[in-house]
Records
---
Amino acid sequence: MFGKSNNDKSGGKPCAAMDSKLVEYLDGRARPAERHAVEEHLSGCASCKTRAEEFRALWSTLDDLPEIVPSREFDVSLRTRIAAEPARRNFWDWMPSPRFAFAMTALVLLSVWLSSGPRLVKSPAQLSPAIQASKVSTEKDFGMIQDLPELENYDVISKFDALSELPGPPAASTEELQKETR
Amino acid sequence: MARTDVQLMLDVKAGDEQSFELLLRKYRTPLVNFLYRMVRNTAVAEDLAQEVFLRVYRARQEYAPSAKFTTWMFRIATNLALNSMRDNRHRQMEISIDQSMETGEDEQPPLEVPDRAPTVEQELVARSRAELIMKAIHSLPEKQRAAVLLHKYQEMDYDEIARVLECSESALKSLLFRAYETLRVELAPFVNHSARV
């Protein structure tokens, strides 16, 4: 699976694809299928088997590297650097005080409420001349459409002279209507 | 119940300075050691480690737990180390056992050698061995070096290391293989051969 094995004890090149499998296998993190494949290869390849053993021994040797201890001044120096950092300001830092912020908010809300309140109804005497004139015109138009039923009567319309007043509801036309409906 | 790193960092975000102290105490030593093994200079390593914590502290308001805390922290550390080495801002002062022995200097970096009442000779051997291991690790290309340090000494998962180094998992595994292959050859005379597969 990993290519042709050779008998050269770890001196030759590693077998193909072992480079991405061996470390994971030795770490114990390989998936079962991959672990099985690596073990199968190692059982048949002396070179890779030797290499695997030497990797294990190397890791043990690397454990011999001692740790160094941070100096006593480390924390002090770090705290000094942190203290020297400019203080970060957020939006609320710009407000003088919470009371002021509350007062401003209340003022804004009050303004919004006042501007959206209901309009006061004015008496006719308080209306401007322009408004008064338009009021009269409106009444006049209403008077015209008040007579609309007559305007829908053909007999009325046919005899209607636009320049004269509208005739009243003719009685005859009503009787004729009754005759027709019988 | 102990809080997780993410919970601690969220508390730092909320203004809890004590939580930051807890994170500092927990990661101060691993971070300094990682950086020391990257740059091979204690003063630079401590300076860079402080810079990491400073950046973590600065970013506390914007912190969002999209990844593990250690992934984030070690990514900052790795980038700072790589930048430091590339910029070469700091003078590389190699800690040389040979030099210190010749000049008779008593000052050594504070190494934690296992306290088994070693003899002077044993301590010298241990320091020499440590120096050779450090030298071998430091001879690796930077990305391989970071991969080995995060894998071997921080014991991070592959996906976490891949995120720190901004590469795929398969690329990381190849990186690790090549690094260990190089170290296997470099350290062959000093390898402990008691380990068996």
Note: Chain B has a mean pLDDT of 85.
---
Amino acid sequence: MDGFRFDLNAPHIVVPVRITGMQRMRWVNWILDTGSTSMVIDELVALRLGYNLESAPTVSVTTVSGTSQASIIAARQIFALGMRVEEFPVLVMPLPEQLRSDGLLGLDFLRRRNLFCNFEKGILLTLPFVRNFLHRCQLVTHLFSAL
Amino acid sequence: MDEIRPEPIEQIRRRYEGEWLLIKVTSHDESGLPKEGILLGHFPDRKAAWDATEVIDGEVYVLFAGPTIPEGWEAVLHGWVSL
């Protein structure tokens, strides 16, 4: 079980994400954002994956700069950091052009496993929740070997 | 006609620093992440890159070759959702 290696000098932790939409599957780079409660995808990207945003439900979103409305879509599948989810809700928002990423990997996805981050070496590791003592020992072994 | 050979994605990124890339993924590493691919196009902005994906099927990687924000910028991203 290897950890994901990220660029220590980059402004964000950028994670490759495979997203399957209504019509297409694409690999994209999303920013790991533990401050975001939900996954976020850029509006244009959602359209190109085949979603019709006019009929999508909306939710209220609060950010540090104010509140707004965002459409919500269901990604058929998302694969990132060794985790795979199906029919997962993703907020759709227009991301600024200056942000060179197509989405945010939020807490609703990240909290499905334990997340370990080594900022000294640039390693990110996700491990399943502990089931029993033996499982805990196995996970600790993985953790020390990976980090 | 010469056959286009796959190359490491990191190599393509270094060649097109500062551009949006469309790469057809041809192989993965042991974690399942894209490892090698064939460059399908390089673009000055996100919109041009994603517009080009309209006519491409299969496993395609859309990425920016460079930092997520311009030099000298800071980013504050977090948000909360109310249903």
Note: Strands of chain A lie at 4-5, 14-20, 25-32, 40-42, 58-63, 66-80, 83-93, 103-105, 114-118, 123-127.
---
Amino acid sequence: MKRRLEATSAQLPFGELDDLLQHRARLGAAVLLARHQQLSFSRLKALLDETDGNLGAQMRKLEDAGYVVARKEFQDRRPVTWYALTAKGTRALSQHLAHLERLIQHARRARG
Amino acid sequence: MDQLEHLEGDLRFVRGALDTSTRGASPSMLYFLWAAIILIGFALVDFQSDWVPRYWTVAGPTGFFASAYIGWRHARRLGQASASDGRRHVLHWGAVLSAVALAVLLRGVPSEQLHAVILLVLALGYVTAGLHLDRPLLWVGLLMGAGFVLVTLVSSYAWTAVGIALAVGLTVAGIREGRPREATT
């Protein structure tokens, strides 16, 4: 079974996937932002079960690529960072998900 | 690990995070607010029926705007500000409020029957809200439907009994909604 899966995997077009969105936390953040429009750093951290350091690093990569924008504000005298998906991020996510869908269809066909 | 299995694991993880983000997103305070408004408003039908129109004219719109504010504040504190969700809630409850306001315009309908019609409209509003917005409201809507049957069959203190049942239902729903983590920003 495992060998069959590996053989299937080798034939699939993984190269079409967006490198940035292949990371679980980055993909999760992008999908959550697409669904909810704006999420705070703390909410993302709780939903994705990430540490401050790791999530901060992943979000910075998305920010550098122009996929998300961060906005800082004070709430009850505490700094809060809000994230939102940009148009570029939305496009990249929808292309990535379309590729994923194709991959899954490929895999299903290959598995018979 | 095989690349495909890895991908499947990631997708399961993302779906789990998405499910968690949509669960228990409504503030308990909303349920408690409407439990109080409904309890008073329904008891008035039995004890001070001439106050009922005035009470709902004030309590209905005030409750609507207070709910919108509570929802907005909760979203900010939770760190999850979904404009599309907010819009859906406002449109849904705005439509229910408008239907109730239009029902009041019915001419020649005795007040007892008008109250029952409004209860039916509210029941429908709560059931559809339960199906599309917040699941606990489904049971409250069904309870309202049962309340409609009760007020059409029983004449003494039926509204107070229905009001108490709905207030308890909403309070329990509010407590249950508040139980999941309310992560603050």
Note: Confidence is low (pLDDT under 50) at residues 1-5 of chain A.
